[in-house]
Amino acid sequence: MALKGLTGAVYQPLSSADIETIHQTSLTILENTGISYESGLEETIDMLEAQGSKADRKIRDDWEQDGSQDAAIRAREIARTILAQEEKSYIPPDVAQAIRKKYNIAGEQ
Description:
The protein is 53% helix and 4% strand.
């Protein structure tokens, strides 16, 4: 008995062709319809930024003047900037040292 959507114990309800169709249709909708500014968006972005997310709030004219970079290129630039900054440790030094010792991890002691 063949079970639709199961391939090697991995549930796959959509084929690669189905996913590509959805992707291309989404791009067509975005190209033809675009996105709009919805009320409440500013509060949502504020909330995400408060949790550490990065948001680019440029208006379209500024975005075009700055070279019209797509999201992937802009994200890489932001990532490089973040990685170039001094590394933060979210674990207190004594806890980090205890973890390194317990699991025999080389590093700053």
